[in-house]
Fold MaoC-like domain-containing protein.
Amino acid sequence: MGKVVINSYEDFEKLVGQQIGISDYVELTQERINLFADATLDHQWIHVDPERAKVESPFHSTIAHGYLTLSLLPHLWNQIIEVNNLKMMINYGMDKMKFGQPVLTGQSIRLIAKLQTLTNLRGVAKAEIKFAIEIKDQPKKALEGVAIFLYYFN
């Protein structure tokens, strides 16, 4: 499935209720996890100490921060959709977000997105995107929720 191209509010309207796309997989390496720990000052051993995690963690591995998984949403979203003719786009919020299962170091994740609703707010497109972040070869999702974006078209 190729990238969906949106040029107007009307293009968005045609997608309501449909799956928009699926991103490529991104691997969550220990290096990426460590960089995220440095950026957020969250150096909990379950994320950054592989030797201790092998022994003390119920997962026998370090795991990615839940917020690292969430923070990859814009990157994964941009693999699925290209929105043109914009003045700007704003992250408006998250609803019903739930972490289903930790992502072990070395696992790969991808995004599946569906346009749940679209509302015209005086010329601003409010898009509610139902999303799931899947872990490769795992039945449970890492993260599910609804991302809300405001698109200001030219």
